């Protein structure tokens, strides 16, 4: 018998290459009041909760962002007039907007005379009322009320 040559080893497979994941930059956040309040909520929840109740005017200038805030008379206005509010507010505003920020407070009585926007809480409440009204006026709801002689007891709207 003729000698048999040993089988040739299989060709070596190249080592798998490890590819590092490419970092993906987060989408830029629009620099507006609503996003600023959300930013503050993450850093300082109690301050963010107070700011939700602020009526505001936001003016972006080349060298600074100016805030004019107003609160309803009472608890929220008292909290906002505490010196710590401005001390805490301005650095967070500068961090978010990326330039120096200045804040001024106006009293509830003078806010009516200035160009101050509605608070986020007022906007949210108005949206909920509008959504409830749309449900109550929906043809299906109206039809069921009429055909069953039913009454709508409550409409709940999820916050979004």
Description:
The protein is of the alpha+beta class and about 160 residues long. Helices cover about 45% and strands about 10% of the residues. The chain has 7 helices and 3 strands; from the N terminus they run ααββααβααα. It has helices spanning about 35-45, 45-50, 75-80, 85-95, 110, 120-135, 140-150, and strands at about 55-60, 65-70, 100-105. β1 (about 55-60) and β2 form a beta hairpin.
Which short descriptors sum up this protein?
single chain, three-stranded mixed sheet, alpha+beta
Topology:
Blueprint: H1 33-43, H2 45-51, E1 55-60, E2 65-70, H3 75-81, H4 83-97, E3 101-106, H5 108-111, H6 120-137, H7 139-148
Parallel strand pairs: 2-3
Antiparallel strand pairs: 1-2
Compute the average pLDDT. 79
- What does the oligomeric state look like here? single chain
Secondary-structure element sequence?
HHEEHHEHHH
Give me the Rg, rounded.
30 Å
Unreliable stretches covering 5 or more consecutive residues: none
> How helix-rich are the residues, as a percent range?
40-55%
Overall geometric form: flat
Q: End-to-end span in angstroms? A: 85 Å
Order of strands in the sheet with most strands: 1-2-3
Main sheet: strands, sense, barrel: 3 strands, mixed
Counting H and I runs of at least 4 residues, what is the number of helices?
7
How many β strands by DSSP? 3
């Amino acid at each position: 018998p003729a000698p048999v040559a040993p089988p040739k080893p299989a060709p070596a497979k190249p080592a798998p290459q490890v590819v590092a994941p490419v970092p993906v930059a987060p989408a830029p956040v629009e620099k507006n009041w609503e996003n600023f309040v959300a930013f503050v909520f993450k850093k300082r929840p109690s301050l963010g909760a107070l700011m939700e109740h602020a009526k505001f005017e936001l003016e972006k200038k080349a060298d600074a962002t100016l805030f004019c805030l107003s609160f309803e008379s009472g608890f929220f206005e008292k909290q906002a007039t505490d010196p710590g509010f401005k001390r805490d507010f301005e650095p967070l505003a500068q961090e978010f907007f990326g330039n120096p920020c200045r804040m001024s407070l106006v009293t509830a009585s003078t806010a009516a005379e200035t160009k101050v926007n509605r608070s986020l809480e007022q906007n949210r409440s108005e949206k909920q009322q509008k959504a409830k009204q749309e449900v109550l006026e929906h043809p299906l709801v109206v039809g069921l009320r009429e055909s069953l002689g039913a009454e709508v007891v409550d409409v709940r709207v999820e916050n979004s």
